[in-house]
Fold this sequence. Notes:
alpha+beta; five-stranded antiparallel beta sheet
Amino acid sequence: MTDKKLTHLDSAGKAHMVDVGHKPVTERMAVAKGEIRMSPETLALIEAGNMKKGDVLTVAQIAGINAAKKTSELIPLCHPLPVTQIAIDFTFNSVLPGIEITATARTSGQTGVEMEALTAVSVAALTVYDMAKAVEKTMEIGNIRLIEKRGGQSGDVVNE
């Protein structure tokens, strides 16, 4: 672990964008997950499609996809990537209670799509909150994490 270093810092300790120009173009994939906890009543309203603002999960899905495509505009040192796929799935979980969000991002490129998958989950969760906040302002967004990544020099990673 001692040979690891922060790649977004130069030799003087200043932030910089990593040069990935020398890296080969490869297929890359990342999966991120997160959750939004809420009362059982709010969860039931969303599941039944009875929120006043409309179809919560469709709006959250579109927001997450749009956010993933704009990740390099939101995270200063991320490279703009030709994202080839963003898929967002929602799972109702009565034990939380809440909604589990999974985002899968794919690209053929010189750097990975972990940040795109994480951004998609984050913005999808924020959108659920926005769509349901009139009913409940105590919802909690959390446990956002990388589950898996494939491709690239650092190899494959599975966190779950």
